[in-house]
Amino acid sequence: MNKITQLFNIKYPIIQGGMIWNSGYKLASAVSNSGGLGLIGAGSMYPEVLREHIQKCKKATDKPFGVNIPMLYPNLEEIINIVVEEDVKIVFTSAGNPKTWTSFLKEKGITVVHVVSSSVFALKAQEAGVDAIVAEGFEAGGHNGRDETTTLTLIPMVKEKIQIPIIAAGGIATGRGMLATMILGADGVQVGSRFAASIESSSHNNFKETIVKVKEGDTQLTLKELAPVRLVKNKFYQDVQELYEKCPSKEDLVQLLGRARAKKGMFEGDLEEGELEIGQIAGLIHEILPVEQIIQQMITEFEDACKEKAKFEF
Ligand SMILES: Cc1cc2nc3c(=O)[nH]c(=O)nc-3n(C[C@H](O)[C@H](O)[C@H](O)COP(=O)(O)O)c2cc1C
Asked: Which keywords annotate this record (predicted)?
């Protein structure tokens, strides 16, 4: 038992990060059935679609699961009400102020975790009364902080400031990565990119195959003026770079981004015009695998690495 397995009543301290267009009930329930904590990503779902996924997830697993709610999308209140009505017990909030909803959710008996990218925000989340925080380094796929703080530096700095449990995120796809962040002070890990390239992820196969092909250096954090996001350097990314050369206004960037780019790339499989959100660790992901196998590999590797203590003696 550790702080995270105890908090969520799960076997392994591995959380599958909520991921727009990737983490529907199939992925979340597969992770929960394999001993981790699966999260349904509400960010890409209309409220009634979310309700359907929660109901299907309850049928697909009798293990704990949660919902990730990025607070930057419209319909926020409706989403929160559905989560409460459907009796979801765990909520991970991100991309917003943890003060806004934490006490409301806690009053409903929900365990609340907030995602942060700095120790300042970690402190604010702790003050807002969350049960744990996800500290996410800038290696991570998806939206991220502007400061470019890496997971290696973020985890010990957050650990110095806060007392509640810490879940490390960003760049973790193996048992060794997991052990490294836990040695730095994390109590568990949140994994995104590795699960985006799983059989059960709801993203388009073109996107999954791209993740497998991505090499070191093929992703970049961009669009910092809007909401910083790590993307594969595809045609859309190059279009953004060309626009930057013309010193664009925020409105120019908004116009180029347009609507539904992430859906186009990750769900519809348009590898040129779509946004392809993935983390730096994709360079280490070489196969699309079933969730159960991913988790078993991570745990075996974690345990093997723990036995190698003698290797570090000098
Ligand atoms: C395709 C994709 C979509 C994501 N969407 C969300 C999201 O909707 N909400 C959120 O809080 N984080 C989102 N993230 C971040 C993940 O939940 C997770 O914290 C991150 O992927 C961890 O870093 P890693 O990619 O290096 O594993 C997304 C990440 C990816 C790769």
From this structure: Dioxygenase, Flavoprotein, FMN, Oxidoreductase
The pLDDT assigned to 38 comes to 98
Q: Where are the alpha helices (DSSP H) in 203-290?
A: 205-213, 235-244, 250-257, 261-262
Place of tokens 């973790």: 172
- Give the C-alpha separation, 27 to 127, whole Å: 32
Domain with CATH 3.20.20.70 in the chain: 10-203+284-312
What percent of the chain clears pLDDT 70, i.e. is strictly above it? 100
Q: Looking at residue 128, what DSSP letter applies? A: H
Ligand 1 binding pocket includes 142 (Cβ within 6 Å): yes
Asked if residue 118 has its Cβ within 6 Å of ligand 1, the reply is no
Report whether pLDDT(59) > 90: yes
Per-residue confidence (pLDDT) for residue 86, from 0 to 100? 98
Instruction: DSSP letter for 40, please.
Output: E
What is the reported pLDDT for 158? 98
Whether the predicted pLDDT of 171 surpasses 90: yes
User: How far is 225 from 238, CA to CA, in rounded Å?
Assistant: 17
Q: Does domain 10-203+284-312 have CATH number 3.20.20.70?
A: yes
81: Cβ contacts below 8 Å, ≥ 6 apart: none
Residues 185-204: what's their mean pLDDT? 98
Among 19, 155, 281, residue to substitute to test ligand 1 (most atoms within 8 Å of Cβ): 19
Backbone angles phi, psi at 302, to 5 degrees: -60, -50
Q: How far is Cα 272 from Cα 115, in angstroms, rounded to an integer?
A: 30
DSSP H or E stretch at residue 136: strand 132-136
